[in-house]
Amino acid sequence: MSEQTGDSNNPRRKLRLGALAVALTATLALLCCTGGTAAFFLTELSGGSDDLSPEAQSACGSSHQVKVSGKMPRFAQYGESQIRNAAVIIKVGSDMKVPPRGWVIAVATAMQESGLRNLPHLGSRNDHDSVGLFQQRPSQGWGSPEQLQDPSYSSRKFYEKLVKIPGWEQLSLTRAAQRVQVSAFPDAYAKHEELASKIVDALAGGAARTVQVAQRSICNAASRGQIAASGWTAPIPGGVGSGFRTASRPRHNGVDIAAPKRTLIRVAATGRVLVARCDPANNGQLSCDVDGYPGKGGCGWFVDVLHAGGYVTRYCHMIVKPRVVPGQLVKAGEVIGEVGSSGNSSGPHLHFEVHLDGDRSSRGAVNPVPFMRDRGAPLNGKA
């Protein structure tokens, strides 16, 4: 039920995510709840987000068929020919019966490698003998230059290698893409995951919001460790009890999900842990190993995680010290703690927040309900 954590209104809380060089590891510093500095390493977890045009927004339906002809949805960063190339990539994956998570990985990979352009050999500007959407190299056995400039052929070769990787669906997008591409810049793919998911949604009827259940793509069911094709999952099962900034609680910057003590809390998406600590109570004391009470103040034991696209998720009121530490890379669905009632709390629950643009203050907070729903991980499961 946290109205705010000890750092929620500090103007210095916003992460500066503007310009991370591809394949470089940036050292960021942000102020912790006590005002100290915690340095952590972030590798390519930034990247701009893009809004779909109204006609490009699509609900998650029963059909995820892809059309490669006709009018394409509009995206600010890509022209029609580039989106049509993305449609070809998705259609090939669908025809090969690769689950939608593979489509997101493939589209994100082509975004990084070629900007979704079917590139020819660029002469002196070329990277070795790489060509096509995925910049595959004829000298490495991918095919002839002519074959690799056929978007359908190059997409099929990508998927053939992807599905041979053991447990590829459980890997982070960066690791899965790198296992296929063996790139000189292995950390460059993650920043494209958010927009790649939106492109897949727009072209394939919301397919990025699905999870695989008994070899079927099921919409809006990513929970209990199942990861949607978008890369997101609900942190715990259960519905929202107390909402985001309601009339009675206008400073409630997240939502409360009731659950029994010791219910496992899973990180909602792959990311880097920013903070994992006890949040001081209003009196300044660190007393998170006992149940809290309304008015005590603080988030109790809590974790903040930074994700691709500059998103930050927050998990409050854990029963014991979190299972993760600052700087740790965590995979979507990984257990980071257990439900409790520490801090400003009236009973066992998870207080869950989502923030934009790396801004951990109240100014960066958005309603987690539509945010998670749009990623196929709605906060409405049953405990």
Automatic annotation (TrEMBL):
It comes from the Bacteria. Residues 363-383 are annotated as: Disordered. Keywords: Signal. InterPro entries: Cell_wall_metabolism_enzyme (IPR050570), Dup_hybrid_motif (IPR011055), M23ase_b-sheet_dom (IPR016047). The keyword Cytoplasm does not apply. Residues 251-359 form the M23ase beta-sheet core domain. GO terms for molecular function: metalloendopeptidase activity. Transmembrane segments: none annotated. Gene3D superfamilies: Glucose Permease (Domain IIA) (2.70.70.10). Pfam families: Peptidase_M23. PANTHER family: L-ALA--D-GLU ENDOPEPTIDASE, PEPTIDASE-RELATED. This is Peptidase M23. It comes from Micromonospora haikouensis.
